[in-house]
Amino acid sequence: MNISIIGGDLRIARLAEMYAKEDNMVYTYGLDKICKDLVINCKSLKEAVEKSKIVVSGVPLTKNGEKINAPYAQNDITIKELIQIMDNQIFIAGNIPKEILESKAKCIDLLKDESLTILNAIPTVEGTIKLIIDKREETIHESTILICGFGRIGKILCKDFKALGANVYCAARKESDFAWIREQGYIPISYTETPEIGPKIDIIINTVPHMILSEKELKSLKRNVLIVDVASLPGGIDKKIAQTLNLNVVTALGIPGKEFPRTAAKYIKETIDKILNM
User: Fold this and answer.
1) Do 117-257 and 2-112 fall under one CATH topology?
2) Intra-chain end-to-end CA distance of the chain, in Å
3) How many CA atoms lie within 13 A of 122 on its CB side?
4) Which of 89, 107, 111, 233 is most buried, judging by how many CB atoms fall within 10 Å of its CB?
5) What are the boundaries of each domain within the chain?
6) Rounded-to-integer distance, Cα 210 and Cα 191, Å
7) What's the CATH number for 117-257?
8) Which 3-state string (H, E, C) describes 232-250?
9) Which CATH architecture describes the domain 2-112?
10) Per-residue pLDDT of the chain (278 residues; tens, 9 = 90+)
């Protein structure tokens, strides 16, 4: 099989290597700083794209809607340039913008695959635990933790932190979530109740991508609290207010790609292989 891989972070570089080790012809562009062996590093985007019917790129594809996420590329790769070159290829990436969806390419958005998003939550949670251990002088055991959101990542965070001996609060909105949080042995609260428990919280982990911790909530917290925001931009914390209060806020985006790229690449490859074999 021929496969072209354009840009992407360390996960995508590892993905390219995995496909190359299976005796596929892997053509890359924008990975030349990191992919040195096995793959064929093309000199131009046009050359790379035209080499195969399958084109894979970043997860997510872009951070600003204009340029492809390609931290290892020598030069910027624009979405406009990619659209002009693609012609009926299968294009696989994450959070594919409307311009590409309306192009000639047949688009497959990996971040709309439920199984991948669940699997991707695993390295996100492990990376969050690693970050917290590195940032604090106290154990997680017997710490009091507030997890904001009870989605895919929130559920695993609650389970793993409770297993480590933490006192786990979980903030949510839906009555059904409150019931599940309670059934699993965590302490459910609504977001409006955050100021009431703020003084006892040692660690906050936010998974909600819209504002939930603003001035009132942040002012209720201890000054030595650690706040970790793993939600996609814009996140859920008023960082300007947090800064004025001298709170320790860590924005932790793209944890799987930074901390566990090989595992994350394995999950992406399994998903792509499943889709292509359908």
Assistant:
1) yes
2) 16
3) 12
4) 89
5) 2-112, 117-257
6) 12
7) 3.40.50.720
8) CCCCCECHHHHHHCCCEEE
9) 3-Layer(aba) Sandwich (3.40)
10) 899 999 999 999 999 999 999 999 999 999 988 887 889 999 999 999 999 999 999 999 998 889 999 999 988 999 999 999 998 899 999 999 999 999 889 999 999 999 999 999 999 999 999 999 999 999 999 999 999 999 999 999 999 999 999 999 999 999 999 999 999 999 999 999 999 999 999 999 999 999 999 999 999 999 999 999 999 888 999 999 999 999 999 999 889 888 999 999 999 999 999 998 85
The two tokens of residue 254 are 């793209």
Residue in 85, 115, 82, 84 with CA at minimum distance from that of residue 96 = 82
* Token code pair at residue 19: 């496909």
pTM: 0.86
Q: Are 129 and 163 in contact (CB under 8 A)?
A: no
Structure tokens at 263: 């595992």
Per-residue tokens: 228? 């970790």
